[in-house]
């Protein structure tokens, strides 16, 4: 593969390896990473000269990475018999390095760097759930209004209120389940074409299903309220 001015030999392919922004990653050796970091385009050199008044030699020799060390992180895998606390203590004693476990990296990414993005997605999801509750409640209410005579007939023949409530709730849950299945199927088709990688975690899907079930249950209350107000005598009207 031709990358800038060098040719690189591809020795393997990874799957699902992306950065915090969802862009794909390329793994190279430390020497290659330092060479890539030090390489600057002609536009960068010209802008650096204009901004700092540096000579061409100074601009070319310096790195485009604004840090003393060209290596941001090193991935370390410990052997089964290694003492994690001892390794952590030894690395921290260097003074110019820090060590993060898998849990620390996950906390740093989700609860610090992506915290605002998570709040935005949560707010957007909340708005969608509210709109969904309103739409389903209106649908259930209209379906109930169309079946006032049938509901009155059921009450006249002795049907209990719990039977009527269950019928209306089933309609609401069927609408929500259909929407959930349709959304999942569309995501499987559309997400591969997204410019960024999108992952639906099983626990996230379970939480979404629970939220949809709760919304459907609340949305059915309006139709249930209207159905319970119907009297059996109204079958004659």
Write the layout of secondary structure elements.
Blueprint: E1 2-3, E2 6-7, H1 30-38, H2 42-52, H3 56-61, H4 84-92, H5 102-113, H6 115-146, H7 148-156, H8 161-190, H9 202-228
Antiparallel strand pairs: 1-2
Helix pairs in contact: 5-6, 6-8, 6-9, 8-9
Descriptive account of the structure:
There is one protein chain. By secondary structure, this protein is an all-alpha fold. Helix content is 61%, strand content 2%. The chain has nine helices and two strands; from the N terminus they run ββααααααααα. The chain has a two-stranded antiparallel ribbon with strand order 1-2. β1 (2-3) and β2 (6-7) form a beta hairpin. α8 (161-190) runs antiparallel to α9 (202-228). The longest helix is centred in the middle third of the chain and has 32 residues, at 115-146. The protein is elongated, with a radius of gyration of 30 Å. The termini are far apart.
How many β strands by DSSP?
2
Beta-strand proportion: under 5%
State mean pLDDT (0 to 100 scale): 81
Task: Give the biggest sheet.
Answer: 2 strands, antiparallel
End-to-end separation: 80 Å
How would you classify the helix and strand content by structural class? mainly alpha
**SSE order in H/E notation?**
EEHHHHHHHHH
Helix content: 55-70%
Strand order of the largest sheet: 1-2
Poorly predicted sequence stretches spanning 5 or more consecutive residues: 54-69
Report the total helices.
Answer: 9
The backbone outline, from C-alpha atoms, is elongated
Using only CA atoms, what is the Rg? 30 Å
The oligomeric status of these chains comes to single chain
């Amino acid at each position: 593969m031709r990358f800038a001015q060098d040719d690189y030999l591809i020795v393997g392919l990874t799957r699902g390896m992306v950065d915090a922004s969802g862009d794909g990653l390329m793994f190279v050796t430390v020497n290659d990473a330092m060479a890539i970091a030090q390489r600057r385009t002609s536009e960068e050199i010209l802008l650096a000269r204009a901004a700092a008044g540096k000579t061409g030699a100074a601009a070319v020799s310096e790195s485009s990475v604004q840090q003393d060390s060209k290596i941001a992180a090193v991935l370390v895998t410990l052997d089964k018999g290694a003492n994690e606390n001892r390794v952590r203590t030894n690395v921290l004693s260097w003074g110019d390095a820090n060590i993060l476990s898998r849990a620390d990296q996950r906390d740093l990414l989700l609860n610090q760097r992506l915290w605002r993005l998570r709040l935005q997605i949560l707010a957007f999801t909340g708005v969608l759930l509210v709109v969904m509750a309103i739409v389903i409640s209106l649908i259930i209410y209209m379906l109930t209004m169309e079946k006032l005579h049938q509901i009155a007939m059921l009450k006249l023949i002795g049907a209990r209120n719990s039977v009527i409530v269950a019928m209306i709730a089933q309609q609401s849950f069927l609408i929500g389940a259909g929407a959930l299945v349709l959304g999942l199927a569309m995501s499987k088709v559309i997400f591969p074409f997204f410019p960024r990688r999108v992952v639906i975690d099983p626990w996230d899907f379970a939480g979404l299903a629970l939220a949809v079930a709760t919304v459907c249950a609340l949305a059915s209350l309006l139709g249930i309220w209207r159905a319970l107000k119907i009297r059996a005598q109204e079958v004659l009207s």
